[in-house]
Every structure is written in C-alpha cells, then in structure tokens.
Amino acid sequence: MELIVVGAGPGDPELVTLKAIKALERADVILYDNLANKVLLDYRKEGCELVYVGKTPYKKYNSQDEINALIKHYADRFEVLVRLKGGDPFVFGRGMEELAFAKSYGMKTSYIPGITSMLGIGLSGIPLTHRGISEGFWVITGTKKDGSLSKDIQLALQSKTTLVIYMGMKNLPFIVEEAVKFGKSNIPAAIIQNASLPNMKMAKGTVVQLPELVKTHGLTHPAIIVIGDVVELAEG
Ligand code: SAH
C-alpha cells in the first residue's frame, strides 16, 4: 500500500514534473482535485481507476474526513494510490494531512512537489521579486479555516515586499479595507485568474480599484491577488 501525493502544477499540463508523470504512470488509482488539469490523467496506465474528489471553492464538496475515508477504501483494494493536487500539495493543499493519515494507516508515503500557482503569475509579466523594487514576498491565505482574514495580512501590508494572497477573492473587500487602514490604498495590485492556462486573465490597478476590476473583467476563482510595486513591471 502506497500513497504518493503529487503536485499537478498551476494548470498548464506541461508545467508538471517528470517525477509526477512517472507516478501517474505507476498508479493503480488516481484521486484527483478540481484544480489539477484533467489532461494529466491521460498518463495513467490501462486499468487505472479515476476518482474525482474535487472540492469546489468555499463549498466543501468532499470534506477531508471523506477524502481520508476514500484513501482507506482504495488502499484496501489497490497497491499504488496517487493523490493528484493542483499546484503544490504543501501550499494550501492539505498534502500533509493526507500523508499523515496514510502513514497512520500503515501505508508507504511520498510527496512530489508541484509548481505552485503563484509562480504562474510570472506568465502575466509580474515577477515576485525585483532588485530595487521588492526584496521578497509574503504568501498568505485570504481565507482561514473559519472563513476570516489572516491577521498576517496586516503585517504584510506594513512591509515593502510583495504580498501574494491565495483564496482571497471572497474576502477581497476586507483585504482592501486593511490596505486602506495601513495607508496602502494606492499601492499597485493585480488579480490573476487561471494562471498558466489558455483562459488566463489579469487585471491590474491599485488596491482600492480591485473590487471594481473584478466586476469589469469578470474575475472569479481560481485567482491570486498580488499587491506591491512589482505589479507595475507588467505591461498592459
Ligand atoms: N495547492 C495549490 C493551492 C490550492 S488553494 C497551489 O499550490 O497552487 C486554491 C487557491 O489557489 C485558489 O483560491 C487560488 O488562489 C489559487 N490558484 C490555484 N490555481 C490557480 C491558477 N491557475 N490561477 C490563479 N490562482 C490559482
């Protein structure tokens, strides 16, 4: 019994690792998420079973307990289980929870990193760091387990480095509110939806303009919010 937790990358199926492909080729069963590109499933061997365990954003389609139950169910029937997750499994991906569960169930476990969706931002022309402009980046979730905004966003807004927010669309009004509170309303900001995919969309302006940009550009999940001067480096 083996569980391999595999990062599927940001969306473009060519942005997956060779190691991930090899794991997909070995799998007896693949449990895949919403954000993992379905094209990757074509690497499966004949007879490999596919199980969709997608979670639609903010609505728990499959709770983690249910996913653990599924892992148990398939581990009893198949030798090699691959859990394919969008981006990287250890970046807001609960990969560790599933590995811990599998381990406690006596399974051999491994993790294959994936390109996290934030790195897809570069494809819209925004670098996360840039000499003389941003000395680093904060990466924070916009939605904690209880749905609220992380207090660390306040800390990040007081720094000069880039702020990257995952899962922030629902709490965008609160993010803007915080930025205003810290005198950062006019700092450059962008929202990138479907990074690395053919339907990628990007809108940029200042932080206070973001809610309006969401409306005019019809932006929705999955999207990443980037706040900081690096946004100005993007053309268009
Ligand atoms: N483990 C994933 C993140 C899962 S949390 C990773 O490493 O990328 C889900 C959040 O990821 C979404 O709310 C969104 O903020 C972000 N996301 C995932 N794929 C994305 C994409 N292609 N473009 C923009 N944001 C994406």
UniProtKB/TrEMBL annotation:
<dbReference type="GO" id="GO:0019354">
    <property type="term" value="P:siroheme biosynthetic process"/>
</dbReference>
<dbReference type="InterPro" id="IPR003043">
    <property type="entry name" value="Uropor_MeTrfase_CS"/>
</dbReference>
<feature type="domain" description="Tetrapyrrole methylase">
    <location>
        <begin position="3"/>
        <end position="210"/>
    </location>
</feature>
<dbReference type="GO" id="GO:0004851">
    <property type="term" value="F:uroporphyrin-III C-methyltransferase activity"/>
</dbReference>
<keyword id="KW-0808">Transferase</keyword>
<dbReference type="InterPro" id="IPR050161">
    <property type="entry name" value="Siro_Cobalamin_biosynth"/>
</dbReference>
<dbReference type="InterPro" id="IPR035996">
    <property type="entry name" value="4pyrrol_Methylase_sf"/>
</dbReference>
<dbReference type="InterPro" id="IPR014776">
    <property type="entry name" value="4pyrrole_Mease_sub2"/>
</dbReference>
<dbReference type="GO" id="GO:0032259">
    <property type="term" value="P:methylation"/>
</dbReference>
<comment type="similarity">
    <text>Belongs to the precorrin methyltransferase family.</text>
</comment>
<dbReference type="InterPro" id="IPR006366">
    <property type="entry name" value="CobA/CysG_C"/>
</dbReference>
<comment type="pathway">
    <text>Porphyrin-containing compound metabolism; siroheme biosynthesis; precorrin-2 from uroporphyrinogen III: step 1/1.</text>
</comment>
<keyword id="KW-0949">S-adenosyl-L-methionine</keyword>
<protein>
    <recommendedName>
        <fullName>uroporphyrinogen-III C-methyltransferase</fullName>
        <ecNumber>2.1.1.107</ecNumber>
    </recommendedName>
</protein>
<keyword id="KW-0627">Porphyrin biosynthesis</keyword>
<keyword id="KW-0489">Methyltransferase</keyword>
<dbReference type="InterPro" id="IPR000878">
    <property type="entry name" value="4pyrrol_Mease"/>
</dbReference>
<dbReference type="InterPro" id="IPR014777">
    <property type="entry name" value="4pyrrole_Mease_sub1"/>
</dbReference>
<dbReference type="Pfam" id="PF00590">
    <property type="entry name" value="TP_methylase"/>
</dbReference>
